[in-house]
């Protein structure tokens, strides 16, 4: 007997999307960092995505395992960077934070290339996230509040795109048809013919 496993991706996307929107409302200048953002970063953005990454591993999903586990740990490290100075550890200077964000941008750029094999909605999430990391790195390298504000609004869009993709997967699955379009990729004709012949 085979057991059908649930798709864990919507859970991870919701954790990523909601936490990203809240942090970037801060980046856009609407309110300061507070315990709500940090708690979301630890639990919904961080812990939930690590769990989802492990669930993707069980399903044999290399892309999902790499993405969700990495971004879950990103949120946990970001909270650590913000909180550890209050525990007596030295705070990271802005320029060094720029390198941290730049490396995450490079990683996400490669993940965006991988996302080109998936629906358009997934490409939008990874494409906008790549831009977000590079904007945040530029903000910290230059100290520009304008770049930070632009990054904030772009990050709100990125988080919203993740929420849309998550809810599209849930709703489309429940109704058994496309209710919210995600720009699903069609199988190449050669692959389809091979499947029919098998």
Automatic annotation (TrEMBL):
One of its GO terms (biological process) is succinate transmembrane transport. The keyword Methyltransferase does not apply. One of its GO terms (cellular component) is plasma membrane. It comes from the Bacteria. It is found in: Membrane. Keywords: Membrane, Transmembrane, Transmembrane helix. The chain crosses the membrane at residues 12-31, 37-56, 68-87, 99-117, 124-141, 147-167. GO terms for molecular function: acetate:proton symporter activity. It is a multi-pass membrane protein. Belongs to the acetate uptake transporter (AceTr) (TC 2.A.96) family. NCBIfam families: AceTr_1. This is Acetate uptake transporter. It comes from Vibrio agarilyticus.
